């Protein structure tokens, strides 16, 4: 009896504490906004359209990065707020939303975008307004002198890095390589990266086919690709295009004749078409949850994500959302606030390790120097559980040598 | 360029065209007989793919999914006609157009809520996995099956319309519904059946496309555009037109892919523009007809 009485007492007390904490939580954002104390981060991403699955993971992880900072009392006592906007995978839409975020919502910095063309549009706006932008979309051009500004940071891998790492694993001297490429910035940059890596290794190019972005049917490209008789087929496209292209290539019996290689192998697309289709496909990645076997940071990130998302695991593009927002917040922490120049300075000096090992932004072009994973999709029989998608073939430690040199990108050295 | 490659390319085009024929046919029948421009056609194609996948996993067989999904979604189409579209007959053509446009949003969003916005794998039936050696190259068994099945469906449809009493009523109803009513035919029931048939064909297209593409809530939007192109090229309301135009578009896409692959999507719109310039009513359309 007495035990149950004391339990109920504690419960009541806990409930009271909970209530007051809740009231404080409710009151805080109001106070914050009134005093303009909240730190606001704009986050445009394509929540609708063919990259929706990846975009949603980005949002979940970005929210996690914000939550972890807020749980520890925010930055200099200021709470952080994430303002997510749907860019609809459209450059014009992204530019409008970004402008709105800056002018109307008065964000202190922008992180996000998934498509390479869209991030360039966001970058145009942030650069003109002098707002920091941390891009988490794969691109080579954003670091080149013509698109770069001191406000531009690039947390994602770039095509040059991934294609080089993948080519090192999958290509050998004298191999014949054919390309199926999405006809837009991402595809073109990946193709350029592969051809450069190919030339260095001594593999031969036997043909390239450009396909329209967002195509649903790839069957019409297959007879010609087969007739090129390559040893390796590089498929450089993204999102559902990757799933559809690989599926239809497999239907045409491509895998019996050649190996399928992709610059970036996508977690969600592998889930969308199943293990049999992806079996043996090799591709690069910024992150894979299975890295926790070799990396403490990955283990901690997985655990935090699982706790916040009912036991789910974080995906590759999700990790970008986490490290993009996380690195920015870490720099704001060092800078003691949101003063743009101080935060830029802090970002340039920042050494961070959020998901997979040490990373830093290179001074000349603000590209994040980081490790590159090369993964191979497992066959169904080899999967230990539903999340066991890939085997890690390589984990190349990040170094400046992986990047094109500052002078090649047109920066003063 | 060797001949075998061109033949393989032609075959890819026919397989691609087969699905276009089925979806274009559903759209054109409904327009020709009911005067309804069905903007939910793409969404119903997508619903068909999901229904096929769901029924296949429920029964453990792709074949049940292929058989039942078009019937079930066709019945759903009849419900849509009975509850919603029926009220708009006799009004301007914009009204059912807007209604079905809104309906497509509801259907897509509904699927997103129930099945999520990620794609779902639709496995190829085990009997049709792999490629067939045609002597000049390899071609996926499943795509050959699609060509054959579409040919059978077309034959059955043609026989029904041309050789049976029901077909006679349907054709007469399309010409002059008033006379049919005077003759004592319940034209409302004919329209109900036609709308159901159109939707059923969309669903059949969805199930057939499922194993070739990943199944996702947005898969119908491109299909709707393609179906409209086929309908416009073939002539609004013309069944023969839909068949010819569907194959023409499929083969054009495939042949252009051989020489200028990046133009593969644009070619069908170019083809449509040319047809509209030379023959505004479409290849098999009747001039001045507004249904």
UniProtKB/TrEMBL annotation, chain A:
> One Pfam match, by short name?
Peripla_BP_6
Cite the Leucine-binding protein domain residue spans from the record: 38-380
Q: Which UniProt keywords apply?
A: Amino-acid transport, Signal, Transport
Q: Which domain of life is it from?
A: Bacteria
Q: Which GO biological process annotations does it have?
A: amino acid transport
Q: Which residues form the signal peptide?
A: 1-34
Family to which this protein belongs: Belongs to the leucine-binding protein family.
UniProt name for this protein: ABC transporter substrate-binding protein
Query: What is the scientific name of the source organism?
Result: Bradyrhizobium nitroreducens
TrEMBL record, chain B:
Coarsely, its chief localization is: membrane
Pfam families to which the protein is assigned, alphabetical: BPD_transp_2
Q: Which InterPro entries match?
A: ABC_transp_permease, BCAA_transport_permease
Name the coiled-coil region(s): none
Membrane topology listed for this record: Multi-pass membrane protein
Q: Which UniProt keywords apply?
A: Amino-acid transport, Cell membrane, Membrane, Transmembrane, Transmembrane helix, Transport
Molecular function GO terms recorded? transmembrane transporter activity
One CC-aspect GO term: plasma membrane
Q: Which residues cross the membrane?
A: 6-29, 36-56, 62-85, 97-115, 142-161, 190-210, 222-249, 256-278
Which biological process terms from the Gene Ontology are attached to this UniProt entry? Answer: amino acid transport
Where is it located?
Cell membrane
Q: Where is the signal peptide?
A: none
Superkingdom of origin organism: Bacteria
Q: Into which family does the record put it? A: Belongs to the binding-protein-dependent transport system permease family. LivHM subfamily.
What is the name attached to this protein's record? ABC transporter permease
Q: Which organism is it from?
A: Bradyrhizobium nitroreducens
Lineage, please?
A: Bacteria, Pseudomonadati, Pseudomonadota, Alphaproteobacteria, Hyphomicrobiales
């Amino acid at each position: 009896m007495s035990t149950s009485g004391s339990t109920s007492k504690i419960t009541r007390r806990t409930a009271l504490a909970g209530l007051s904490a809740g009231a404080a939580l409710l009151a805080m954002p109001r106070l914050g906004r009134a005093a303009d104390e909240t730190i606001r981060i704009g986050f445009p991403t394509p929540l609708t359209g063919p990259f929706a699955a990846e975009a949603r993971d980005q949002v979940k992880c970005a929210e996690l990065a914000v939550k972890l900072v807020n749980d520890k009392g925010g930055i200099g006592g200021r709470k952080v707020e994430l303002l997510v906007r749907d860019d609809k995978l459209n450059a014009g839409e992204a530019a409008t939303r970004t402008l709105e975020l800056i002018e109307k919502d008065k964000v202190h910095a922008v992180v996000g975008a998934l498509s390479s063309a869209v991030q360039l549009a966001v970058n145009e706006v942030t650069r003109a307004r002098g707002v920091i932008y941390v891009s988490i979309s794969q691109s080579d051009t954003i670091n080149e002198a013509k698109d770069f500004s001191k406000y531009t940071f690039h947390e994602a891998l770039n095509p040059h890095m991934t294609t080089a790492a993948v080519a090192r694993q999958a290509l050998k001297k004298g191999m014949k390589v054919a390309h199926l490429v999405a006809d837009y910035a991402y595809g073109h940059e990946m193709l350029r990266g592969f051809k450069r890596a190919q030339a260095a290794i001594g593999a031969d190019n036997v043909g390239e086919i450009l396909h329209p972005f967002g195509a649903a049917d790839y069957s019409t490209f297959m007879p010609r690709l087969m007739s090129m008789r390559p040893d390796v087929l590089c498929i450089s496209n993204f999102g559902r295009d990757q799933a559809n292209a690989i599926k239809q290539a497999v239907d045409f019996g491509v895998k019996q004749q050649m190996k399928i290689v992709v610059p970036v192998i996508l977690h969600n697309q592998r889930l969308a078409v199943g293990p049999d289709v992806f079996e043996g496909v090799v591709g690069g990645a910024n992150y894979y949850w299975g890295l926790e076997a070799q990396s403490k940071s990955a283990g901690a990130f997985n655990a935090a994500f699982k706790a916040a998302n009912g036991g789910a695991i974080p995906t590759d593009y999700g990790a970008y959302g986490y490290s993009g927002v996380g690195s920015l917040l870490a720099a704001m922490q060092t800078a003691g606030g949101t003063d743009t120049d101080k935060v830029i300075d802090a970002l340039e000096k920042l050494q961070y390790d959020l998901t997979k090992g040490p990373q830093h932004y290179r001074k000349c072009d603000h590209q994040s120097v980081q490790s590159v994973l090369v993964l191979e999709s497992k066959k169904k029989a080899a999967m230990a559980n539903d999340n066991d998608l890939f085997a890690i073939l390589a984990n190349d430690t990040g170094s400046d040598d992986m990047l094109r040199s500052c002078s090649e990108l047109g920066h003063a050295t | 360029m060797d001949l075998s490659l061109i033949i393989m390319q032609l075959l890819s085009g026919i397989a691609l065209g087969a699905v276009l024929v089925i979806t274009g046919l559903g759209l054109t029948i409904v327009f020709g007989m009911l005067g309804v421009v069905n903007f939910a056609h793409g969404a119903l194609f997508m619903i068909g793919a999901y229904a096929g996948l769901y029924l296949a996993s429920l029964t453990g067989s792709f074949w049940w999914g292929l058989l039942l999904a078009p019937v079930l979604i066709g019945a759903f189409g009849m419900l849509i006609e009975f509850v919603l579209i029926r009220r708009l007959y006799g009004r301007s053509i914009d009204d059912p157009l807007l209604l079905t446009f809104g309906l497509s949003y509801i259907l897509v969003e509904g699927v997103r809520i129930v099945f999520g916005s990620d794609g779902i794998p639709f496995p190829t039936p085990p009997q049709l996995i792999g490629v067939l050696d045609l002597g000049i190259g390899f071609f996926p068994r499943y795509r050959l099956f699609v060509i054959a099945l579409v040919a059978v469906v077309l034959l059955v449809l043609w026989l029904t319309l041309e050789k049976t009493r029901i077909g006679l009523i349907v054709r007469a109803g399309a010409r002059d519904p008033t006379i049919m009513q005077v003759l004592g035919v319940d034209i409302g029931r004919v329209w109900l059946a036609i709308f159901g048939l159109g939707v059923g064909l969309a669903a059949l297209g969805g199930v057939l496309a499922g194993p070739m593409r990943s199944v996702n809530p947005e898969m119908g939007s491109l299909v709707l555009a393609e179906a409209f192109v086929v309908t416009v090229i073939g002539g609004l309301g013309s069944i023969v037109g839909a068949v010819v135009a569907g194959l023409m578009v499929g083969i054009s896409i495939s042949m252009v892919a051989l020489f200028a692959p990046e133009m593969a999507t644009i070619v069908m719109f170019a083809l449509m523009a040319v047809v509209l310039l030379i023959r505004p009513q479409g290849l098999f359309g009747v001039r001045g007809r507004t249904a």
